[in-house]
Design goal:
Elements lengths: L2 E4 L3 E8 L2 E7 L1 E4 L4 E4 L16 E8 L3 E4 L3 H8 L3 E8 L2 E14 L2 E7 H4 L13 E7 L4 E10 L4 E7 L21 E6 L10 E16 L6 E8 L11 E4 L4 E10 L5 E9 H13 L8 E2 L2 E5 L5 H6 L10 E6 L4 H4 L7 E5 L2 E2 L3 H8 L7 E6 L3 E6 L1 E2 L2
Antiparallel strand pairs: 1-7, 2-3, 2-6, 4-5, 8-9, 8-11, 9-10, 10-13, 11-12, 12-13, 14-15, 14-17, 15-16, 16-19, 17-18, 18-19, 20-27, 21-22, 22-23, 23-24, 23-25, 25-26
């Protein structure tokens, strides 16, 4: 069902009379099954004739017919995306070793490609150590199609994996992908996934908002260490939902659920993290199309500090100009690194990356890891102009 929302016309009058404030507003609206129409009435307050104009101030503001068009309701969005979303079951022999969520993001001929969480795909939560090459992966989609899937590859740095399966009869649709670029805190999101409490709760729909931007998620160790930029949501999740899609109100997938915060008592506070679909494009492409079936991480070679997080003493010690309120202060640019070779030095301030404002390490990483080795990363340096950094492989 398509819903159209229109605000009523608000008239707000503020009158200050010798230290007293009076607020008046009037709203009238009517609602039918397809729209909210609005009309307005006006109200006014007049002060006593004995009150002089010099002792009164009147401010009147009107909000005129702001129109909101929500193109899909939750049911329509769920019914559109759900057939592309699967419960992922990971087996070691005949034993269930781990369980998560996944979704189809691309197709080539009859081959469908699926995004999944790498920790789930390798059965990291299995009580016994397992070899990922001996595991079997099964997908049960929202439209009840069940298939066996092969592991294509992974990038442990983002804790992401790609699976594939053959679908000659085109039974499973490719999910609609969108963009996270331009999203803000407070924007509504939906999540579909299978909580790790049993398959009877598979493909559960939850709702929340984007509650944080430019987060950095780190964890794991050794070969399984990960560190990636993320956005924060408050939609309820658990580890079984990892790998599931984050969907905006238009019905497009904008991210992948990857992590949930637990406090010291092991209690979730509705703090989960997702990687934006934009940040995964180059990584997914390399996992599928390179012989190594992983992402060759690039490097820029700088150590930076977020200017927004600096106290006054730190700003002064770094000689940050008074008018600079955000950006990345370069603490060090290693000799021989891509940044150094392009002319970046310590005490420089990076303000944009590929045309996007950056003010945190997470933000810089987000745009950096959309790049491949040999590509140019365009940085704007305060007071210096544009710097073109040719990226090399990370060591």
């Amino acid at each position: 069902m398509k819903h159209s929302f229109k605000t009523a016309l608000f008239t707000l009058t503020l009158v200050s009379l010798t230290g007293c404030a009076l607020f008046n507003s009037s709203v009238s609206s009517s609602l039918d099954s397809s729209s909210v129409s609005s009309s307005s009435t006006s109200s006014s307050e007049s002060s006593s004739s004995s009150t002089s104009s010099s002792s009164s101030t009147q401010l009147e503001t009107s909000v005129e017919s702001v129109y909101y068009d929500i193109s899909n309701d939750y049911t329509t969005i769920y019914n559109t995306v759900n057939p592309s979303v699967a419960a992922l079951f990971v087996y070691s022999g005949t034993s269930l070793a781990d369980q998560g969520s996944a979704f189809v993001y691309d197709v080539e001929g009859t081959t469908k490609y699926v995004i999944a969480n790498y920790s789930v795909a390798r059965a990291a939560q299995s009580p016994t150590a397992v070899d990922i090459n001996t595991l079997n992966h099964e997908l049960l989609f929202g439209n009840n199609v069940r298939v066996a899937a092969d592991l294509v590859g992974f990038y442990s740095g983002y804790d992401i994996a790609v699976l594939r399966f053959e679908d000659p009869n085109n039974l499973v649709p490719v999910a609609p992908l969108g963009t996270f670029d331009g999203k803000s805190r407070g924007e509504e999101v939906l999540v579909i996934g299978t909580p790790k409490v049993g398959p009877e709760l598979r493909n559960t729909l939850t709702r929340g908002v984007v509650s944080g931007l430019e987060r950095m998620v780190t964890g794991g160790s050794g070969d399984y260490a990960y560190s990636y930029p993320a956005f924060q949501i408050d939609a309820p999740t658990n580890t079984g939902v990892f790998g599931g899609p984050v969907i905006d109100i238009t019905g497009a997938i904008i991210g992948v659920v990857q992590y949930r915060y637990l406090d010291v008592d092991g209690i979730s506070e509705s703090i989960s993290f997702a990687i934006s679909i934009n940040d995964l494009s180059e990584i997914l492409d390399q996992i599928v199309n390179t012989t190594a079936h992983t992402y060759a991480k690039v490097r820029i070679g700088v150590t930076v500090q977020d200017i927004r997080m600096m106290d006054l003493a730190t700003r002064n010690s770094f000689n940050i100009p008074a008018g600079v309120t955000s950006g990345l202060y370069v603490v060090e640019a290693g000799v021989g690194t891509p940044a150094y070779n392009a002319g970046i030095r310590s005490q420089d301030i990076i303000t944009t990356a590929d045309g996007f404002p950056v003010s945190s390490l997470s933000g810089l990483s987000s745009y950096l890891y959309r790049k491949a080795i040999g590509e140019t990363f365009v940085l704007q340096v305060y007071g210096e102009g544009t710097v073109n950094v040719v990226l090399t492989a990370a060591s």
